[in-house]
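Researcher: I'd like a structural prediction for the single chain below. Treat it as a standalone chain; there are no partners to consider.
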Amino acid sequence: MADMTVEQARKGGAGSLTRFLRNIFLRNLSAKIAAAPMMATVLVVFVGCTIWTIWYSFTNSRLLPSGDFVGFEQYQRLFATRRWNVSVTNLVTYGAFSLVFTMVFGFLLAVLMDQKIRFENAFRTIMLYPFALSFIVTGLVWQWIMNPSLGLQGTMRNLGWTGFTFDWLTNPRMVLYALLIAGLWQGVGFVMILMLAGLRGIDGEIWKAARVDGIPTWRTYLSIVLPMMRGVLVTAVVLVGSGIVRLYDLVVALTDGGPGIASEVPAKYVYNYMFGAGNIAQGLAASTMMLLTVMIIIIPWAYLEFGGKGNRK
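Model: Treating it as a single chain, here is the predicted structure.
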């Protein structure tokens, strides 16, 4: 009798485990099958290529990958290279200005659009149109505008203002701000649309309550509206930040890293060393440092955004 009880318990335990595994693997089976190619792509392409990149950055690979392990030699050479240090400084400077100005201008334009102005659809289309262009096209357009001979400077001098100067593309101290202008021209409209969607999602009763309480409009935006738009703000920051980190095509089209290396950026450094200089390991070391920088920023944010909530509960 006891043996039968033990046997039944074993069968019951095995049956429970079987049902548990069946629920895991068979529940929403069609969704799992549909997501399988994407999951395989993530594992093979992204994770696999990341591991491959990190590993070969510790080798002495030149034109082709090789297994000659050299430790941190490529990283020591990387940080001793003036071109890399200049590119990192340029990216930090460009990124700080770009992120702040894009968010501020985008929000201010969204506030203006939210006032139900006339021809709103036309203005919204005009502001969003640059975002539909590639950075290559944007770079070429602004290269013509900023060309000292054919662009704005040449036009103004032909009109009689012979002392007018706008030679930022050839000025090492101003070329980074020329990139900033072109980047803002393309990105502000997109952020404006995101902010406008967030503003249109705010309940109108909040504005009425703020007016009844006598709260100034600017204070309502800063203290009430912006905190309620936290999700939109985070989305905008992540999208703008990702564009800053992978900044490459705008630089190539507008300045090609010049004059000299005054507008060099890390992504261009990686490309030049991997495909131009034939030094794969040096390019992979630079790309690994870019990945590490992104992880240092993303991991604390992800913990505060998701893990911190669970801990506070």
